Amino acid sequence: MFKLPPMSAVRVFEAAARHQSFTRAAAELGMTQAAVSYQIKLLEDRIGTPLFRRLPRHVELTEKGRELAPAITEAFEGLRVAFAAVEESAQTVISLSTLSTFASNWLIPRLGRFQALHPDIALKIDVSPNIIDFTKEDFDAAIRSGRGGWPGLTEHPLLSVDFTPVLSPALAERHELREPADLLQFPLIAPSDIWWKQWFAAAGVGEVDLSGRTDHSPGNQHLEGMAAIAGQGAAMVHPLFFKDDLAAGRLIQPFSLTVRSAHSYWLVYPKARKRIAKIAAFREWLERETQDDAQRSA
């Protein structure tokens, strides 16, 4: 296989051939004319033929130089276009890993406001419950649920994780709901979810054994809420994620008690990306949106 000459020399040749001048090539590349001449000589020695004729006041390409120059210029133009495309994408596309319910029930309905503020920034969303490794996966940022303290990451708390039971009005009519213990008359969606025991304990129901119930769980909170709307049982959800369904009467919150978890939703990204403009813009928008939610629910 033919071994390529040093790329530094090829780069100098491309500029000199394009300008037909060592002086102008030196100015473009930030080099001295002597350095340009030296790199051209290295390249000529490497391939074994002159590429320029050195005339008293200027240089001109030899036949071999004219043969080589178009291919080199085309190759460098291809590199410029490729790097420009990558740079543009890096500056204008945010690749975000997020959780399903946060994406579908909170983020997506609000994205129009972000796009109106930042029409030059696109958001590419990947939904997954997995905690990504930023050193191995190509994401700019992620939404995580937890207590924080992830090594090497900048963390911004967004929303507290609150939970309360909800069910459809049609299902609620089947039994009288006067006190929290009455919920035990209904099918419970995802009864193994620790939130059920925590909510019943906070409601003063005491020790509740849900181990004998069929553990019907669609797999995430968004689907559990949809199952509740369909009348399949009571679901334990974050009320903020289903506020439109509650307002429209598709779901009801039978008791005002909402319990706050020790977990929160966070925006996280590697510390080295803190000053990247697109991430800063997205972070500031997220913080404004979550602050508005907190004020409205206060």
From TrEMBL:
Q: What is this protein called?
A: Transcriptional regulator GcvA
By its UniProt entry, which Pfam families does this protein fall under?
A: HTH_1, LysR_substrate
Recorded GO molecular functions are: DNA-binding transcription factor activity; sequence-specific DNA binding
Q: Which PROSITE patterns match?
A: HTH_LYSR (PS50931)
Q: Which organism is it from?
A: Microvirga brassicacearum
Q: Which residues form the HTH lysR-type domain?
A: 5-62
What gene does this protein come from? gcvA
Q: Which InterPro entries does its entry note?
A: LysR-type_TF_proteobact-type, LysR_HTH_N, LysR_subst-bd, WH-like_DNA-bd_sf, WH_DNA-bd_sf
Which key words tag this protein in UniProt?
DNA-binding, Transcription, Transcription regulation
The transmembrane segments are none
